[in-house]
């Protein structure tokens, strides 16, 4: 099987896994956790998993691999850079709104913030992501940034990008696990214990497995050197870049 | 800074982070969780985090990067393959004993096994690791395995190796998080709630952060193409391999 065919199969798999993650986290929180509100209640908290999984994992993963699509390699890189930056900005905004939901929820009952390992890993992921977006924008999109800086920055940007994905996967797994232990207790009226694996627990565990699978496929696409966009510009380019010659 | 110097700095960092993980998990369970026993009690459970972190994370990580050390590239590959296989086997044995500890603990009070997302991710990691070890032994160490099979197997082996590390990091983070919510409850006599971040919580959270940092440094070493052992055998080889010519 050719490398390009394996790429497209991996890419389709990442799209399917990403969409499955979004469907699972939405169904879990709308059907089993009573839906959404923005009122400091548990319904506001429900935005947290939905926005983190949709923004910080799925959109982030989709945004990370846009340069890897071989069909785009014959085209000007700039529109793809703008798409990459836009997807990542949308991912970051969703993640920040998702953090607001959980801070609001804790503050509404004067609960403490940022004490659990889940929260430490998660906040580190969002902080690194925000830093990565700002440095990426300044280094790769501003016309004044010198090509030598871009060459130095690129491997760090790719490695930090993959590392942030690993952090977000670890944060999601610990968060889903923690949430299920919190809410699935036999002593809460009508609730079944997590340990008896009620349908909600199976759904949320499957969501966790899908997130891990999505992360692994995205990292595979990201790190395979054969699937990296070639550095040199093709000779048959037909339209000029908007900002400057892009060769990094 | 030269690539070799950066490698050795990264390698020293991975050694330091790995040792720090082992020290932290041992101090946590011996000083704060009352030490160890093999009697079905919570003291038997304490072997679980110690053996998983020491075996499945630290020894696994050390074993994963042995081929990357440039000093070994001028030498016959076989002793390093045997060291890699031995470290991985020791890691797998420690992980299996670590699983026995938690199954024994649950079975002693007829508690259920393998329902949490932590346990699903963790058992998947150990099962994939056992499969990877057997396939790796058959494919890379048995003299009857053909070189073409080895060439096909190698990228899959490297990718699955990195993936297993990602699974184990996610399992460790969710496990430490879960354990701290279980044991640090204000309503248990003398205990402080996790949310008030008592010293034990800080130590175990730091352990989680060290595990993530160790995983990231090991993955960086593993996936950097400049640090991969060159395929071709050096001309100044002085002693013959024990099993067969190793060129994969």
From TrEMBL, chains A, B:
Which InterPro entries would you find in this protein's record? CYB561/CYBRD1-like, Cyt_b561/ferric_Rdtase_TM
Q: Which membrane topology term applies here?
A: Multi-pass membrane protein
- Return one GO MF term: transmembrane ascorbate ferrireductase activity
- Iron found in the keyword field: yes
Q: What EC numbers are recorded for this enzyme?
A: 7.2.1.3
Q: Which UniProt keywords apply?
A: Electron transport, Endosome, Glycoprotein, Heme, Iron, Lysosome, Membrane, Metal-binding, Oxidoreductase, Translocase, Transmembrane, Transmembrane helix, Transport
Query: Which chain positions lie within coiled-coil regions?
Result: none
Key word Transport present in the record? Answer: yes
Give the catalytic activity.
Answer: Fe(3+)(out) + L-ascorbate(in) = monodehydro-L-ascorbate radical(in) + Fe(2+)(out) + H(+)
Protein name as it appears in the record: Lysosomal membrane ascorbate-dependent ferrireductase CYB561A3
